[in-house]
Amino acid sequence: MLGQAKRRKLWTIPTEYHCSIVGTCLSSEDVAWLCRRLKLVPTADARPYDIHRYFVEKAAEDGPEARLMHKRLDETFAVAVKRFARETTEEGWMALWAAAVASGDVAAAYWGVLSHGAMPDAVRVRAFADVHMLSHIMGGENRRQLRENRDLARRCEELTARLAKQERAAAERVAEKDARIRELEAQLATQAGRARGPGKRPTSRKPRPAGRQARRVCCAPWTPCTAASPASACAPATPRPRWSGCAACSIRRPRNSAAPPPPRRTPRPTSAGGPSSMWVGGPRACPTCGRRWRLATAACCTMTADSSRPPAAWRGWWSAPTWWSAPSTASATMPACG
């Protein structure tokens, strides 16, 4: 290929271009790679400028340093080298260079221009001038970025200090609010204690357990659960009590729990004397007249002397149905209403 045959080696390029080639086309990673391949160990006090000057001087010599640099540049910018090799006119090379500057791919295009053997001097000088000015622009840009970085660092410190101050103030306000809340709660507790009085205890807000309610005796008859709807409602494994209320005493009881104990009865008294006396103990009332029983010699309003059994309405009300068994007489003594 004609373009490849006319390419220039690095050490054949004029020396005034070597500084810009090493500085623009070789990055810091490339320089470190060259030092490893050439087994170069910079001294502890070596500056980046010293390393740059060393490779600029070696670029003018046909030695291992120049050959290795030329190989590295060809491998890195192979695409740009082929692009400039396919072009054959000055206008085409100028257009390629302008496009590279606009896109920022200056290093690859610069090596493609300077290593081309048939490149006109006008294109080579134009590329060198642009790279020279870009170095100044980049220097100024770097200085501007350094100033911005310093300003941003100072601004960051100010904002950090302000944020820490605001966090401390917020923590203090929260502590003050907590203290105020505790003070108000203590005042409310004191006022509630005064309202209850010295001998009263605070009423518990917990609901009464179902077991305690089931142990209370209700005047209504105890009815077991006979619900036919889901079996799990009254199953022993998962008890779900159905409540039954008493219209008289308003006591609620679960239907499917154990029956309450029977009411306490008055002890049965002994006979008051005489074969015809009988006694009904406890505060019981007559189902007919509603008056309390007492021991008397007169007949009750609903009984006669020759009755052998109490009326059906009275059954269950006798705590000691001791009916006299003597022969029927007119002077029989019966419990009466009084």
Description:
The chain has 338 residues and is mostly helical. The protein has a domain at 2-128. The protein is built from ten helices and four strands. A hairpin with a 6-residue loop joins strand 1 and strand 2 (252-254). Helix 2 (18-25) crosses helix 4, helix 6 packs across helix 8 (106-114) and helix 8 (106-114) packs antiparallel against helix 9 (121-196). The longest helix has 76 residues, at 121-196. The radius of gyration is 59 Å and the shape is elongated. Mean pLDDT is 71; it is low at 1-5, 211-251, 269-284 and 293-338.
Short description:
With 338 residues, this protein is mainly alpha-helical.
Q: Which structural class is indicated by helix and strand composition?
A: mainly alpha
Radius of gyration, taken over Cα atoms and rounded to an integer in Å: 59 Å
The run of helices and strands is HHHHHHHHHHEEEE
Proportion of residues in helical segments = 40-55%
Mean pLDDT: 71
Which stretches are low in confidence, meaning pLDDT under 50 for 5 or more residues running? 1-5, 211-251, 269-284, 293-338
What proportion strand? Answer: under 5%
- Overall, the morphology is elongated
How many strand elements? 4
Distance between the termini: 146 Å
The major sheet is characterized as:
2 strands, antiparallel
Sheet with most strands: strand arrangement? 1-2
Number of helices: 10
Biased composition (Basic residues): 197-215
Keywords: Coiled coil, Plasmid
Region (Disordered): 188-215, 254-278
Coiled coil: 142-187
